[in-house]
Design brief:
Helix content: 40-55%
Radius of gyration: 22 Å
Largest sheet: 2 strands, antiparallel
Number of strands: 4
Length: 146
């Protein structure tokens, strides 16, 4: 990525825009460390989260024949061929939407990646009966036990 910064490829892609971005007000380029951090977020957000979501949803569907059959029936009864299936048409399928949302609820692909920080407020921040002081970082990462 840093090689591309010094020898731009001229491609019209996300990294070209990232590498040529400048700070508002100063017009100066962002430091390499910030660019690298942003690139990592883009890679994770665009690949790992998508694959984790799909894997989780498919695993649960394969584990529950009734849910799989219900979803397959909904899709097959709404489309005559695979060529008709696109985002615009598929977004109106209620069971498909429910399957996707349930998969994201059961195993959020970004569960602990984005911490939240307790900010100053007129009252203390409490979660499940526990009070957290200002400045503490919290994540919603879960630990699974077998």
């Amino acid at each position: 990525m840093l090689n591309q910064k010094w020898k731009p490829s001229g491609r019209d892609d996300i990294f070209n825009y990232l590498l040529s971005a400048t700070k508002k007000g100063t017009g100066r380029p962002f430091p390499d460390s910030e660019m690298f951090g942003e690139a990592i977020v883009l890679f994770v957000a665009g690949s790992d989260t998508t694959s984790t979501s799909l894997l989780t949803i498919l695993w649960h569907l394969m584990s529950d024949r009734k849910s799989y059959d219900t979803l397959a029936n909904e899709i097959r009864s709404n489309f005559k061929s695979i060529d008709e299936i696109n985002y615009q048409n598929a977004q109106h399928l209620p069971y498909l939407r429910a399957v996707i949302e349930e998969g994201l609820r059961i195993f959020p692909p970004n569960s602990g990646f984005i911490p939240r920080q307790v900010i100053p407020s007129d009252r203390p921040f409490a979660l499940h009966g526990r009070v957290f002081p200002v400045g503490v970082s919290l994540t919603n990462q879960r630990r699974h036990r077998v």
